[in-house]
Design goal:
25% strand, 36% helix, Rossmann fold, globular, alpha/beta, 304 residues, single chain
Length: 304
């Protein structure tokens, strides 16, 4: 057992977060090669993750996946158990892909796309380590247009990891101001969002502020099929908040906020046409809250 694994084992057996902080300082884990090449996720030991120069990887190794994503990852796995066509846009290093792949039915279709080459390589390595060969991965960016091609992928100046969590397609993102973008950019292949979600019944989108653009580009498909959608709603992302407000007002979707203790309906100020505050993790679904909770409870019987 490596030194890192031994220290992590002590931390989880004693439940001492301070021990983890000391261990991370001792090993100076900005040097990601201090981690084992492959490691079991501590709070999901049935899953193995490939190490990477990634903030996601460091947090998951030392503190577990729920320390990074909270209970959303459990709701994602729960919804995957009932889905037949899953699309994950912006899979990064594959944390959600691992949990989804472990939960989906054997005959389900699961597509994970990630444009950044390093993140994509880690995604593939983690899926391979778990023998999740049924998952289809594509190294592409999803775009709001109708034609395939190439787009610029930017990495924020503050995101200095080899597998950055904030890489995003150049556009009018309400999250990243132009001054916050670095000169680090690359051309990546791009495919229309509407083409990849045409048959999906479950979608997760993490595209750093351009979610509304993608959703609007496929609004006819979404309204027709009403897939369940997992999405992050930040307070400054007004275009997305406006779109979700409209969908809830028109009874296209129910909107649920993911909390540590479960999910709760989101109240919307119809006059202001705005959510109150930073919602973070949200589920859009045509199901009622009772139906969603039933799926979660049933999934706990089969998902480790």
């Amino acid at each position: 057992m490596s030194i890192a694994l031994a220290l992590r084992s002590i931390h989880f057996s004693l439940g001492q977060p301070v021990l983890t902080q000391l261990a991370m300082r001792m090993l100076r884990l900005k040097n990601w090669k201090a981690l084992p090449e492959r490691f079991p996720i501590p709070d999901a030991p049935h899953l193995t993750m490939a190490r990477s120069d990634s903030v996601v990887c460091a947090i998951v190794f030392w503190l577990g996946q729920r320390a990074y994503e909270g209970s959303e990852i459990d709701w994602w796995a729960a919804c995957c158990t009932r889905s037949r066509n899953v699309v994950e846009v912006g899979a990064n290093v594959g944390l959600y892909s691992l949990n989804g792949a472990a939960a989906v039915p054997a005959d389900a279709r699961y597509l994970a796309i990630e444009p950044h080459p390093v993140s994509y390589a880690v995604l593939k390595a983690s899926l391979s380590a778990n023998h999740f060969n049924q998952i289809t991965c594509m190294q592409v960016a999803a775009i709001a247009g109708t034609d395939e091609g190439e787009v610029e992928l930017h990495i924020p100046a503050q995101d200095r990891y080899g597998a950055p969590a904030g890489a995003h397609v150049v556009g009018q993102s309400p999250i990243y101001a132009p001054s916050a973008q670095s000169n680090t950019a690359m051309l990546v292949k791009a495919i229309p969002f509407r083409n990849i979600i045409a048959q999906a019944d479950l979608i997760k989108i993490d595209v750093e502020g351009l979610e509304a653009d993608l959703l609007n580009s496929a609004i006819d498909i979404i309204i027709q099929h009403r897939p369940t959608i997992f999405i992050e709603v930040l307070d400054q992302n007004q275009p997305l908040k406006n779109l979700i407000t409209q969908w809830q007002a028109e009874k296209i979707y129910n909107v649920f906020r993911i909390l540590p203790e479960g999910i709760a309906p989101v109240a919307i100020n119809q006059h202001a046409r705005s959510f109150g505050g930073d919602l973070r993790d949200v589920i859009l679904s045509g199901m009622t809250i009772e139906q969603m909770r039933a799926i979660f409870d049933q999934a706990r019987l089969v998902v480790p």
